[in-house]
Write the structure tokens for this entry.
Amino acid sequence: MGLRYVQPAPGFKQYLPKDYVDLIDFGPFGKEVDASQIGQFKEILEEHPMCAGCWMAYFVRVFYASLPNPEDTIVLGTAGCARLALSQAAVPFIYGNYGDTNAVASGLTRALNLRFPDKQKDVIAIAGDGGLMDIGFSMTMHSWFRKEKFTTIMVDNEVYGNTGGQESGMSPKGVQLKMAPKGKKFDKLPATELAKLAGCVYVVKIAPTNIKRLSKVIKRAILAARHFGPTFIHAYTSCNIEYSIPTEEVLRDAREREKKDFGFEEYMTDEVKAFFEEIEKKKKEVKA
Amino acid sequence: MYYVARVDEEKCATYNCKQCTLFCPEANTLMFDERKNAAYVNEPRCKGCALCVYVCSDLLKRDCITMEMVTTE
């Protein structure tokens, strides 16, 4: 891993596929790119089979554009929609058994600390509501209890979208789905509250409608996880197929949900807050 | 036959705006050309969701993007 891993040997560049060469010449490796510049540089995410207009695909796109250090990052995923795109990027991707992302990430973080004690490697577990809050619930919670230093991101589409529309623990109360025609009888799990109780040092609830804010939050979650402990992002990424949202109205739906029940919430411990303040102070000094 | 977005580059160039590129769910698809000061679509990658049309026409009222049927030869 690292930058040298990405660079081709001299003389071989002309034989490599165009997408790879573009990635070296115009990609984000070794540079500081801002997610609000997407569309103006070659992104590390490639073509993937997620549905047209999928808001989770959009989240994954912004996520990969926001990585502070893509050449030293490992992403973990589990069965579900998100991994269809997560695996199609120029970042190492680990695909475990269903729901074990946080258990694998715990071991991986420790192993990387032993193998590369002088380098900072970012480990990010990113899975859906089923992978983290239903089937992988115990492993998610226990990684937080153990204060494992990596980032967990939940892309919450409020349904098992890949398998025909079964209700999940994160589906809102009363919602009727294709495989749950009677309507859900229980409340949506309070994921961010659970994360705070379990000891996450940085917890965010967000609907991806503002790219600058989203990218800032992702960067902060990764930076905080390097030094302090587990961090968690709960993002609303609607399923336009199972919730029958016309593709062109996916953004409108995200904005409506943001006003209704997915308003931006950011929680951090005092030491994390002091850490971010210091970083921002340094940035201002550099600018001045 | 495919349903893809097409940008009216002349019209787009009159605005100083990159908003549609920020909301496309596909990577490396709706790109911005700095020389022309206009967005363009990498058509083989476009899935035809029309989110860019919502951003350009409904939110910004600029109407630079239309959805079109294309056939491959």
